[in-house]
C-alpha cells in the first residue's frame, strides 16, 4: 500500500514529468508569451523590431517582447532559471537600500547559486565559491561573475537556438503576415 502512495505524494514531480510529454518548440498562440494585453502587443510588434533581436543578444534582452519570447523558448528547454537569475541580478543592482541588500542577495544565492538550489544555474565551482565568499559582505557587484557566466552561456548556447526556433520564426512570420 505504501508503494501506491508514493506517486501521489510527489505530485510536483509527476507534473514536471507530464510537462516533458508536452514540450513544444512552437507557439501558435503568442498570447502566452507576450506580457500586457497580448493581442495589442503583437499588433504593435513590427517585423523590423523582431528582426533586430537577431542583431545581438543584448538587443533581444532589452526589448520587452523579445525578452518574453526568449523566456517562452527557455521554458520549452526547461532552462528558464538562467534568464530568471540574470533578471534577478539586474534587479538586485538597482537596490538602493543597504538594509534590503543583504536579504535580497541571500534570496538570490539560495534560489539560484547554492548547491541544490531550487532553480540552480549551471556555473563552475570557482564562480560558485567566489560568489559564496562575496556573500560574506554583499555588495551590488557580488553576483557579477556568476551573472556574466550565465549571460555568456545563454548568448552562446540558448540564443542561437532561439533564433532558429519555431517560436521565433513563427513570430516573425506572424508580424510579416500583418503587413500583407
Automatic annotation (TrEMBL):
GO cellular component, one term: nucleus
RGS domain sequence ranges: 56-172
Any Gene Ontology biological process: negative regulation of signal transduction
Protein origin, superkingdom: Eukaryota
InterPro entries in alphabetical order: RGS, RGS_RGS8, RGS_sf, RGS_subdom1/3, RGS_subdomain_2
Recorded topology in the membrane: Peripheral membrane protein
Database matches in Pfam families: RGS (PF00615)
Subcellular location: Cell membrane; Cell projection, Dendrite; Nucleus; Perikaryon
Keywords: Cell membrane, Cell projection, Membrane, Nucleus, Signal transduction inhibitor
Protein name as it appears in the record: Regulator of G-protein signaling 8
Source organism of the structure: Eubucco bourcierii
Gene: Rgs8
Amino acid at each position: 500500500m505504501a508503494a501506491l502512495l508514493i506517486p501521489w505524494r510527489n505530485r510536483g514531480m509527476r507534473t514536471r514529468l507530464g510537462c516533458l510529454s508536452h514540450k513544444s518548440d512552437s507557439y501558435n498562440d503568442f498570447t502566452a508569451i507576450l506580457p500586457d494585453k497580448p493581442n495589442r502587443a503583437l499588433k504593435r510588434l513590427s517585423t523590423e523590431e523582431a528582426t533586430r533581436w537577431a542583431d545581438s543578444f543584448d538587443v533581444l534582452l532589452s526589448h520587452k517582447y523579445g525578452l518574453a519570447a526568449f523566456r517562452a523558448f527557455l521554458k520549452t528547454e526547461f532552462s528558464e532559471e538562467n534568464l530568471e537569475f540574470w533578471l534577478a541580478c539586474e534587479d538586485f543592482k538597482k537596490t538602493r537600500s543597504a538594509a534590503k541588500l543583504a536579504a535580497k542577495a541571500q534570496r538570490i544565492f539560495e534560489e539560484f547559486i547554492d548547491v541544490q538550489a531550487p532553480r540552480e544555474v549551471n556555473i563552475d565551482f570557482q564562480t560558485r565559491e567566489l560568489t559564496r565568499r562575496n556573500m560574506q559582505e554583499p555588495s551590488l557587484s557580488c553576483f557579477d561573475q556568476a551573472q556574466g557566466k550565465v549571460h555568456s552561456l545563454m548568448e552562446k548556447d540558448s540564443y542561437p537556438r532561439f533564433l532558429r526556433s519555431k517560436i521565433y520564426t513563427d513570430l516573425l512570420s506572424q508580424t510579416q503576415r500583418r503587413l500583407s
